[in-house]
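User: I'm curious whether this sequence folds into something compact or stays loose and floppy. Could you predict its structure so I can see for myself?
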Amino acid sequence: MPSAPLLRPSALARFWELNPRTLPEWIKAGRLVAIRSPGGHYRVRPSDVRDFCAREGLRVPPFAREDATRVVLAGIAATGERAVEKAVAGKSVGLASFASAMEGIVAAARPLRCSRSTHRRARSPWTRRSARFEACGGSKRWS
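Assistant: Here's the prediction. I'll summarize afterward.
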């Protein structure tokens, strides 16, 4: 079974909206367990992140969760759904059931995301200009 990928402290800091230097300080203080790579960079195991979150009362990042594996059931009878639930019971698997096959396909194609939008989209500097350009009837003056 392949091991889980190691996480960068910068990704955790971005998720928790902390200063990027905070996590290396926590690692040096012993609050967060980390591994040092051959290049001298810190990497954190997802299991250590989950333990740390439970201890410190922080949200677990979606990329560090155990239930990263999911099963999507689409257009299946209730008896079949119960059989699959029994088969995956006790395992770290997310199970989602959909009445229509199309909804199931769309759900399976979606990447796992956090429930709260913590990542802001970068806006192009031209976005506001384009909106103003269209609002003023297409003239080339930018006001």
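Summary: Helices lie at 9-16, 22-29, 46-56, 78-88, 101-109, 126-135. The two ends are 61 Å apart (CA to CA).
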